[in-house]
Each structure stands twice: as structure tokens, then as C-alpha cells.
Amino acid sequence: MKRTELKRKVPLKASGITTRERRKKPCKACQVMFTPVRDFQAVCGEVACALAVVADNREKARKAIADLERKELRAARTRIKTKADHMREAQVAFNAWIRERDADLPCISCGRHHQGQYHAGHYRTVGANPELRFEPMNVWKQCAPCNNHKSGDIVNYRINLVQRIGADKVEWLEGSHEAKRYTIEQLQDLKAHYRALTRELKGRAA
């Protein structure tokens, strides 16, 4: 096939640089050795090679722009999140860890193993005791019927909780606790922490 070279805009002599001053290198497209005319020249003088690199760079540029847009979108979403949004995300991460931690345990209230949905059920409710929202001893895997339809079945919850952690710890949960006021940074740290713990537990189970 006839090689059609690109026309040089500036002759080598006019540019003040001779071909002897540049080392040959392989064309990025066809791998043929050539002497570059300009700094950072990646391809030989073939039109096909130049077009091939342009197409390659266009795809790389598109991916780079897409990645940048995704990062900017995530950053923008983070900036507009309220404290309540961060609290909700931290709670979701914590609840997921509870379910993974208790994967082999039955429902804390009814003691059943079943294939239905499980929740992270709080012994002392978040509404009444928000300071125990992220207390691991206060939250256990609970089946949806007990949590949704029996208001947590709190009597049986307490009986089984005493067996799991002991009466002294249950009495501590039932006592008074200092209020906790989380900052956004603390909530972000909690979310990251419990997500990491969940990944670790899933990795062990795999």
C-alpha cells in the first residue's frame, strides 16, 4: 500500500532542528521506526496513523471528561446534602452492618430463622433514645413481622437480649444516657466505618 505522508508545515532546517538531533522511535500506531519532527510527536507521517491516534485520543478524552463529570456530580450532591441526609446514610450503613453481623442469628424477638426480610431492630427506639441510635448492643437482627406488626415484640426482645448480653448490660441500656449531637463529619466517618466493617464481614463469609 502506498504511504501518504503528511506535509510538514515547517521544514526541518527552517525550524533550526535537524533530524540528527532527534532519536528514532516507534510510531504509536504502526510501530514503524521514524524520526520525529516535533517534540512529543507520537506517530510517523502517515495519514492513517495520525487519524488512528486522533480517534484513540478522542475516546480517552471522552472517558476523562465523563469521569470528571461523575466526580463533580458526586461532589455537588455531597455539598447540597443536609445533616438529616448524612444521618440517614450513616443509619443505613450501620443497619446493614447489624444484619451482616447477625447473619447466623435468629430474630431477636421471636427466635425464628426464615427466608423473609430482616431489619436492624432497636431495643430502645431511636425516637425515645436517639443517643443509642448507633449503640451495637441496642440493635439486633429482627424479622419484619416482629418489627413492623408487633412493635418490636419488646417483651420477648428483652428476654432474648438478656440471654445474649446479660442483665447488667440490658439495665445499662435502660438507664439514662448523655445526649449525642453528631457533626456532618462524624456522620460521614460513621458511614465509612460501618461500610468498611460490612465489607470485611462479607469478605470473611465469601
Could you describe the 3D structure shown?
The protein contains 7 helices and 4 strands. The chain has 206 residues and is mainly alpha-helical. The strands form 2 sheets. It has a two-stranded antiparallel sheet with strand order 1-2. The protein has a two-stranded antiparallel ribbon with strand order 3-4. Strand 1 and strand 2 (33-34) form a beta hairpin. The radius of gyration is 32 Å and the shape is elongated.
In total, how many beta strands? 4
Number of domains: 2
Q: Sum up the overall morphology in one term.
A: elongated
Helix content class: 40-55%
Q: How many individual helices?
A: 7
| Helix-strand category | mainly alpha
Percent of residues in beta strands?
A: 5-15%
Strand order of the largest sheet: 1-2
Tell me the span between the first and last alpha carbons.
Answer: 56 Å
Give average pLDDT, whole number: 85
Uncertain spans: none
Biggest sheet, open or closed, and with what strands and sense?
Answer: 2 strands, antiparallel
Radius of gyration: 32 Å
What series of H and E elements makes up the topology?
HEEHHEEHHHH
What's this model, at a glance?
The protein has 206 residues and is mostly helical. Helix content is 51%, strand content 7%.
